[in-house]
Amino acid sequence: xxxxxxxxxxxxxxxxxxxxxxxxxxxxxxxxxxxxxxxxxxxxxxxxxxxxxxxxxxxxxxxxxxxxxxxxxxxxxxxxxxxxxxxxxxxxxxxxxxxxxxxxxxxxxxxxxxxxxxxxxxxxxxxxxxxxxxxxxxxxxxxxxxxxxxxxxxxxxxxxxxxxxxxxxxxxxxxxxxxxxxxxxxxxxxxxxxxxxxxxxxxxxxxxxxxxxxxxxxxxxxxxxxxxxxxxxxxxxxxxxxxxxxxxxxxxxxxxxxxxxxxxxxxxxxxxxxxxxxxxxxxxxxxxxxxxxxxxxxxxxxxxxxxxxxxxxxxxxxxxxxxxxxxxxxxxxxxxxxxxxxxxxxxxxxxxxxxxxxxxxxxxxxxxxxxxxxxxxxxxxxxxxxxxxxxxxxxxxxxxxxxxxxxxxxxxxxxxxxxxxxxxxxxxxxxxxxxxxxxxxxxxxxxxxxxxxxxxxxxxxxxxxxxxxxxxxxxxxxxxxxxxxxxxxxxxxxxxxxxxxxxxxxxxxxxxxxxxxxxxxxxxxxxxxxxxxxxxxxxxxxxxxxxxxxxxxxxxxxxxxxxxxxxxxxxxxxxxxxxxxxxxxxxxxxxxxxxxxxxxxxxxxxxxxxxxxxxxxxxxxxxxxxxxxxxxxxxxxxxxxxxxxxxxxxxxxxxxxxxxxxxxxxxxxxxxxxxxxxxxxxxxx
Length: 685
Known about the structure:
By secondary structure, the chain is mainly α. It has 4 domains: 3-22 and 42-163, no CATH class; 168-355; 433-503, Methyltransferase, Methionine Synthase (B12-binding Domains), Chain A, domain 1 (Orthogonal Bundle); 515-677, Lysozyme, CATH 1.10.530.10. It has a two-stranded antiparallel ribbon. It is globular. The relative contact order is 0.06. Residues 440-496 form the Lytic transglycosylase superhelical linker domain.
């Protein structure tokens, strides 16, 4: 019997042990917690339920050991047999079965017996998250191999992951190969894909061209904008009339190609401008303006190029040039060759914001897709544009609905109209102990709790969210209350966030555990406690032992090197190696906030951006300023999406915590935090 056979036998043993007919002793892990455990020996009062740590069972340890052995590729057959005996009736044992199937299929996708067993497992456990995960992972194995019939069996039952960009693209590839779908729909998928430098994007491009070879250049234009130059070059070589030397010149030196080609055909000219625009959009704009008389572009072609160049210039912070380029693009009408048109449309708005061109802001919002226009951020800026141009009644009509929202833009709308933040507007939804008790018995919730005590946070979150599918408002409130009782702060916050604004519960959405301690540390570090809480809520959702892929750890997600530097810089006695300890982490995180706050003269936008992206990035972005800029606008212009969203969320959190901690001083808090960003050397007093 080979290693794979023993692995599958182990899976069979676990399946049998977990069946209703199994007579084994009940698992020690199946305990339904009703309240948080006793406070650990870290000095926190028992009321600080969010900082609790659940003790692990021997089955938990066996499961963790299996995972570690699997990652290391060090599980001998006898080890698997031993784990099978230890994990009988363990509620997480199905994960091990699924992982064994995944490993076996990955090792030998042509093994039809293993595949059939995996499909049977998925069928028998339909409705459980573990099979959603297994089906997704196996689909990603079979799709690149062209196994359409297998892919469909795995893809069809998916509930959550059908819209994953890669799976959706592979589904479209197979539809095109079967004579279904259309090249136009496939190009729309390419245009909206989060990345074009992927196997699935290249496969979809090939499928489009097999169906419609005349789409070669539009597809190549998309790939160029998405920086998949290898595939774009291959298409140009295979489908265009250019010689191999011309293709080489076009992709290796697009400006030289334009200079050396007196009258390029329109497609190669467009490709050259796009390629040049990736590195130097200003030079590309000059090339487009000096288009040879023998080259003729349609209005749609010009819209593609000017929108792309405006987008690239705006990302570089050259908003004057961006506005000029965008003004030469007549519209943002659907253009199948423009990559990520929504992102381009957003930067069209931002370039006008940067120049205080409020009329341009309004025009740019009107050119967005209707779905994007409905986004509350762009609703705010549309209302703001009308406010700034003297149409305050029209602005109020747009902004008033936003004021009900407990969001960043909802608070900005309140600030503009000089209104208080909404706070709790209705009593807690009517939930009973029976409502809460239902979640205590939910298999996915039980698995989520077990995964959480194993510190498998992502898996725990997915199981919890899987349980919430289709839950109504009362059920969501009950689930959030249960999370509060058992100390799952992240699930409490995320679950209550699914409630409507009318049933906002700040004690669940914006908790303040260890308030006296946090307030003391913040005071010693000379930073606002609301800011500290705002960072913790965004960074870790109050999970003290969570760590990131980059190595950041604990409540405030500090890198060990940053913690060590901070401790030395400020003479803090806390041990920087003990970042899982809440007190240590909050102390060092608060002092690092102090460093950033001092470095940027109290300008919270720059300091908060520096906490996420590093202070050097904030220095670079600030260096673009030639005059003071409203912090609300500056935050909107941060070129990194992650950091831009981070700043909004942290400062929005901070304003909400300020409302909770000092309700008499909450009006206008967010706008005050955003403040005005001064150029370097012209710091605010």
